Amino acid sequence: MPENSVICLKNIHKSFGDLKVLKGIDLQAHEHDVISIIGSSGSGKSTFLRCINLLETPTEGEIWITGEKLKLARNKKGDLDASDPRQLAAMRARVGFVFQNFNLWPHKTLLENIIEGPTQVLGKSKDEAIAYAEQLLRRVGLEERKDFYPSQISGGQQQRVAITRTLAMDPQLILFDEPTSALDPELVGEVLGVMRDLAGEGRTMLIVTHEMQFAREVSNKVMFLHQGQVEEFGHPDQVFGNPTSERCREFISSVY
Ligand code: ADP
Ligand code: MG
């Protein structure tokens, strides 16, 4: 039932012109679910994740967030777009998104990056937002860097700040799109460590990742996408250890 899930996606389709990228995807996440989304490059993982908060407009489908159905109407391009901008803004405030390339504001300090959403979107006072940001930065070991600019810290640190920025909004769901793919190998572990802690706290997360060992250990469900369709879905032990789909088996043996 969409009413008691954190997120419920029904029959999501997305085409770019004649190219059908998503061909009817269903996914439901309940509180504390950590769902990894795997699949080869071009299978539609990013497009699917971006459809959830309408960074991409789906061609077909329903989106329910914390039991509330997102109001959609067909736009001129033939896609579904939010028909109630206030509802969309409220829903986006509940769904964090962590990008491959961090997407921090380069001209703002780390602290300014983190308090932007809480002050501008949630209407928190600056003092309150700063106190919370400092507390969250302490947890990821970056409090002393709060007045640095993104270019002055490593990619791993930037991604930890990007995750902190998301946490500052107290999201009910966090979407990660290959959060470690842009990092040098020696910086991957520190970001996965933070994500592991979030999973341990019971955060609800959807994670597009190529880190198979991490996905197997941290998630409770895994979705394998192939050419815009769910080809395999289940517990990580089953998907990684004994997949029913031959394509899933091939994919996993090619990346492990
Ligand atoms: P993945 O994240 O699994 O690598 P994507 O969702 O990025 O895959 O892309 C799936 C397909 O959609 C690819 O063929 C890609 O070229 C195409 N695609 C993605 N975004 C766009 C876009 N904005 N315009 C046209 N085609 C796109
Ligand atoms: Mg992608």
TrEMBL record:
Keywords: Amino-acid transport, ATP-binding, Cell membrane, Membrane, Nucleotide-binding, Transport. InterPro entries: AAA+_ATPase (IPR003593), ABC_ATPase_HisP-typ (IPR030679), ABC_transporter-like_ATP-bd (IPR003439), MetN_ABC_transporter-like (IPR050086), P-loop_NTPase (IPR027417). The keyword Glycosyltransferase does not apply. It is found in: Cell inner membrane. One of its GO terms (cellular component) is plasma membrane. It is a peripheral membrane protein. Residues 7-252 form the ABC transporter domain. GO terms for molecular function: ABC-type amino acid transporter activity; ATP binding; ATP hydrolysis activity. Belongs to the ABC transporter superfamily. PANTHER family: AMINO ACID IMPORT ATP-BINDING PROTEIN, L-CYSTINE IMPORT ATP-BINDING PROTEIN TCYN. This is Histidine/lysine/arginine/ornithine ABC transporter ATP-binding protein. It comes from Oceanospirillum multiglobuliferum.
